[in-house]
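User: Before I run my own analysis I want an independent prediction to cross-check against. Here's the chain; please return only the structure tokens and, at the end, one sentence I can use as a sanity check.
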Amino acid sequence: MEKRISVIIPNFNKSYVIGECLKAALASHYKNFEIIVVDDCSSDNSVDLIRRFSCKLIELDKRSGASRARNAGAENSTGEILFFIDSDCLLQENTLAAVNKAMADCADHTDDSIIVGGTYTPAPFDNTFFSIFQSVFINYFETKRKQPDYIATHAMAISARRFKESGGFKEQFLPMLEDVEFSHRLRRDGCKLIMNPEILVQHVFNFSFLKSLCNAFNKSKYWTIYSLNNKDLFADSGTASAELKANGVAYALSIVTIAASLALSKPALSWLILPIFIANLFINRGLISAFYNTKGLHFAMLATIYYTTLYAMAVWAGAIAGAAKYLLSYRTYRHLSPYRMQGDRG
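Assistant: Structure tokens:
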């Protein structure tokens, strides 16, 4: 049976991609669905573009963030299933059918007790090195476990009734990771999180070298703030994986080894980097294999070098910035959750 699915898309200044997003959604082979776009006071021509498509448009009266936009979409939905994606994500022709099947296949759970997630296709819409790197990275780590630590809102399905009972996404929160908090909160309330790798959306990254590093920095910064408050800094959690953390440790040990070699004038010490690097490759062999399977040997080699050096450096910088922000917030706002930093939109 085809249950009615409400596809909810928050949008803010994504005129360069929202048309492609809606075109892909309307090309779905699934028939019983609606599209709800919530525009968060865009200053570009997004709204004019959205109006050209057969969808429900909700315009917020003030800039409120993605959580508020998603909640508004849910409040105005008519579907039995809510499927959240982002405005730079492209549904595949069979994505909604896969959502419907995944929800129906959870025979040992009622619709109200599960959240089903999907992920990005390994190959992104824009076929450039840094975009491919990021898409493979996310696809690999998000699909590593059938029961993940969280479900991301670029492909999240949940029953409308359960979502409304939950109170939705927290609107006073960090600039990102509201889906992680939502997943953790509902899991504590008895929901089961299920990852289905057949539910795929294709992401439009448009990542340059600088954008890739900034993304790594920002994600690491806010993951650190969230994890310190949640007391799960070392958890193996999706893209904040044990492998990524091991990669960071290997990078730090390599820097310390080089510094010690120079300070002590003992070049032989630098050879210790080799076993550290080999151990790191072994720990991250799954990701490296995903790089290879997606784009071949040459890409895998370049992606591995980038991942173990500059990407690791950006993750470390973000973690340090996040820890500093957390400590400062804790000292200044001890009576509040450190999440309530709406003035910080970095």
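Sanity check: The longest helix spans residues 285-308.
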